Prior knowledge:
This protein is mostly helical. It has helices spanning 2-13, 16-21, 32-38, 40-77, 83-136, 156-166, and strands spanning 27-30, 141-144.
Amino acid sequence: MKFATFLIALMTVFPVSQVMAADALKIGYVNTQRIFRDAPSAVRAAKKIEAEFSKRDQDLQRMAKQLQSMQENLETNAMTMSESDRRAKEKSLNDLSREFQRKQREFREDLNLRQNEENTAIIDKANQAIRQIAESEKYDLILQDVVWVSQQLDITDKVIKALADGK
């Protein structure tokens, strides 16, 4: 949509003879999602984040199982428990549930923050590689994240290779 608007604006601003010369524009496209998925620095960042957060994730999984076990125990034995035991177990369950929700929220926030930090570093390096490719190969325009693009314009592999070479 933005690209179509750009082309229409070009046609209205430049005379027809200059629009004919626009055919000589060298345009490239970069798939940002592929960079985040396939670039060596992105793969390393994902592994680094996974290692950083795996212990907390395992702790949350253990806590979730403990909650489930407590809930099942309470449901199974509620009728045979004394009122005070049942209330005490319900209170323990509610306290653990609140703690689990708090830890889960903190985990998600910390994970999102770390992912954003790593993604910012990756995109900065990718933009630098894109600029270098644009200058060395004389591109007039390089687009990212479009609705549709011909594979002939896709230079994502060049950017990933440049990122791999630059490490």
